[in-house]
Design goal:
The chain is built from 8 helices and 10 strands. The protein is an alpha/beta fold and about 200 residues long. It has one domain. A 5-stranded mixed beta sheet has the order 1-3-5-6-7, with helices on both faces. The longest helix is centred in the N-terminal third of the chain and has 18 residues. The protein is globular, with a radius of gyration of 16 Å. The two termini are about 15 Å apart.
Length: about 200
């Protein structure tokens, strides 16, 4: 069901996909083939929606996440939906990121100069991966407000470095810019109501 911005929000329970995709009783993402099966299942769900999607990837049921699976699922999804040849319009937010998930996620994202928005606690969101200070600053302002109109953006992001940070988080799909109005939206604000 599309929200007011024309975005279809979907929740992807990664632990359930692991159990279903590889017929395992456990929610361990520990082999590249397992990661590939999960990533392909996520891509199928995004393709089925067929419009702009914000995908809330819930890792809370994943008990073990190794580096190869973090690369195969998270980094490859982020990279695939960044370029001009991307198969669709998709934005990603990680939910249920725990201490044991953090190291593999941070490492693979940084190594490939990627970043992703993650919910790291009840209602707490942060950027994981490789972000510049300007991007971190622009994201922090947008995150605290939830939405910034084009008019507000001219005042709030008046310095060139901060404007460059705002452009960066939009280009890297860490924020959503509404095509019709040009307003900027924090991804966290778009997924808050998803369960």
């Amino acid at each position: 069901m599309k929200n007011d911005l024309g975005i279809d929000p979907i929740t992807i329970r990664v632990g359930g996909l692991v159990r279903h995709s590889v017929t395992s009783l456990y929610s361990h993402l520990v082999t590249r083939p397992t990661g590939r099966a999960v990533r392909l299942a996520i891509e199928r769900q995004i393709t089925e929606v067929g419009t702009t999607v914000i995908s809330l990837m819930d890792l809370s049921e994943v008990t073990v996440l190794d580096f190869s699976c973090a690369d195969e699922v998270v980094a490859k999804l982020a990279r695939r939906y960044l370029g001009p040849d991307r198969p669709g319009e998709a934005f990603f937010v990680l939910r249920g990121v725990s201490t044991q998930h953090r190291d593999p996620l941070e490492e693979v994202l940084r190594r490939q100069s990627l970043a992703m928005v993650a919910e790291t606690g009840e209602g707490r969101f942060e950027l994981l991966g490789d972000v510049s200070p300007a991007e971190e600053g622009a994201w922090g302002v947008l995150e605290s407000r939830g939405r910034v109109t084009v008019v507000e953006a001219e005042m709030i992001f008046s310095q060139e470095a901060v404007r460059a940070g705002l452009r960066g988080i939009v280009e890297r799909r860490l924020a959503f810019q509404q095509p019709s109005s040009g307003d900027y939206h924090a991804l966290s604000a778009l997924v808050r109501d998803l369960t």
